[in-house]
Amino acid sequence: LIKTFDVATIRKxxxxxxxGIAYLDSANTSQRPRQVTGAMMEYFEKFNSNIHRxxxxxxEEATERYEATREKVRDFINAASTKEIIYTRGxxxxxxxxxxxxxxxxxxxxxxxxxxxxxxxxxxxPWQILAAEKGATIEYVDIDExxxxxxxxxxxxxxxxxxxxxxxxxxxxxxxxxxxxxxxxAAKAAGATVLVDGAQGAPHQGxxxxxxxxxxxxxxxxxxxxPTGAGILYxxxxxxxxxxxxxxxxxxxxxxxxxxxxxxxxxxxxxxxTQAIAEVIGxxxxxxxxxxxxMDAVRAHEREITEYAYEALSDLEGLTLYGPPPSRxxxxxxxxxxxxxxxxxATIADRDQVCLRAGHHCAMPLMTRLGVAATARxxxxxxxxxxxxxxxxxxxxxxxxxxx
Amino acid sequence: MSTGTAAxxxxxxxxxxxxxxxxxxxxxxxxxxxxxEEDNPLCGDVIGMDFRVKDGVIEDIRFHGRGCAISQASASxxxxxxxxxxxxxxxxxxxxxxxxxxxxxxxxxxxxxALLSLKxxxxxxxxxxxxxxxEE
Lengths: 404, 136
What we know:
By secondary structure, chain A is α/β, with parallel strands linked by helices. Helices cover 40% and strands 16% of the residues of chain A.
């Protein structure tokens, strides 16, 4: 049963809304509630110290809180063990870690890597660099006219036995919810290692990595109410065990001798140097916040707002909406207004304190595919209310009046 | 909500909108002496310029491309200024001149839009005067 979801109450946890902004850019970065900033402040003011190396009380407290996030995240994504939860700076670093530590070991000349045309640059560029270095090939799955992946093409590419298949759970630019369960199962059956980019999935849909069966799952804390600088790489233990470190130095070692070094156990093998302690603690508080709301309730609220916004924008003249119908998309709507460049629209919206994204959304191959240089994008989250959508509609009408 | 009209609008003044909707010197030149294109990687906007130069003077000029009102109006205004100008003088045109010509407050987020056409001029004009290594 879905709990009562009271947006007005939720918004009270987010002091930034007292400024009067309509925030429609959560796919870019979310806002953070007091519970998250409070947990970080508590660390700074009550037990600020380094982790894993000091023998005094506040350092024990810091270490405990830092490690507690790992269990919260494990539970949130239903991983088998905290050894499979690696802290990174975000999705980008998580994917780079896999490209470097797994990719350099396993991708060889002539190997095939399968991506999709709707990927964020962070799930394209690391693979392009790896492919260029190793002489591997990359193929991209196209989309249909609704902005959904061409699964027929995906299955065709799997017949060529790709070594790696990587795709997003949800498209950041179109909001398309990909059929990840079916895709992971097919890719695994074809013998591929599978990475799922969960940057837009974990915050809005949640995930069960064991049910999904992927090898790697990457996501960012700052898109799910947490601070910037803390994200997660989930990796199946067996794969992580066989991988060499990404970054090296302090804290990721067991013993260092001049003749050589033995590495620390999982997950610390991949966490070199002093970590983003406050941020990781903040991420833990964000997971608590989302878990208390319940991801089913989060999804239901976003669905309601997205349907409301889709309808409101569809009613306006001169608008083109990109991507699938609201029932098949997450809380993201990309659109363009005839005769008005997205940047001009965003500037006009900004004067009404409406925060709107304009640009290529770090998905240039998709923009090229759609035949546009840029789109405007509104995206929603747990705190989004219909009034903010109404204000966007007002800004669009204002822009149309100016550019008439 | 904004209540102003287009005429008194701080940012989208009438003449900016006019240059956006009716860009001056828009199109291509046949066999130009200089032709150069630049893009704004942030938004994918593109502006290109063709120059006909005779005895060191910009005899004719056209610009093409796509973009927002600011980048298009800025390019249109710049071509008006460049037509008939000695190339050496054109090289002296700086950021302050272009922003002054637009006559509006440009936020940091939009400054690249406003200066895209100037970048085309700079790289294009210096390219012709023999500094080939500067040409992209």
